[in-house]
Amino acid sequence: xxxxxxxxxxxxxxxxxxxxxxxxxxxxxxxxxxxxxxxxxxxxxxxxxxxxxxxxxxxxxxxxxxxxxxxxxxxxxxxxxxxxxxxxxxxxxxxxxxxxxxxxxxxxxxxxxxxxxxxxxxxxxxxxxxxxxxxxxxxxxxxxxxxxxxxxxxxxxxxxxxxxxxxxxxxxxxxxxxxxxxxxxxxxxxxxxxxxxxxxxxxxxxxxxxxxxxxxxxxxxxxxxxxxxxxxxxxxxxxxxxxxxxxxxx
Length: 250
Hints:
This protein is α+β, with helices and mostly antiparallel strands. 33% of the residues lie in helices and 19% in strands.
């Protein structure tokens, strides 16, 4: 079982702000030499929590997510940023995902992705109610990258997971790997296979929650306004796979 990423990366340079993605993350250099897409306080505390929980559950399930870490943004970095950027990036703990120097997955490349990976990601996104994985022949934004040389998929972005307005019909109509539905949801052996993997992943739950930085539970930097986040409700949502309704796509 993969261990939780440690909070050991310090951001030493802000290179620029991304022009893509809902949260427009900051592109930064860490003291480990890696380039990170950093989602600070301006991305929203719930967004950071969603990324952390989903990323770690993905690791525990064997989903090929881009490497990520809790990163530390030192206060002195604010001195070289505009007032707006300094506020958006914030200081202290943030979520950082390592930059992937590969290309976005094209619709025509979907058959290149191994069937097991396609099925796993379909189940995983259904499990965490992540609708942000859309890709059709007319385009989309699947937050998936494909390394053609190594024939591997890389998965990013889970800030929209646990969507309270999640629409199952929309999910199964537009998910990049929707064609895998019969192979997974209608096969009792496959269902048991994924049930076992989700059970295994949930064994990491307590550690995942305990590793969330304390400041993420507050909306304001002064830590006076508590975020409306209930870990137990998230856990209850994830335990749906133990019901037939989960596999009946309800």
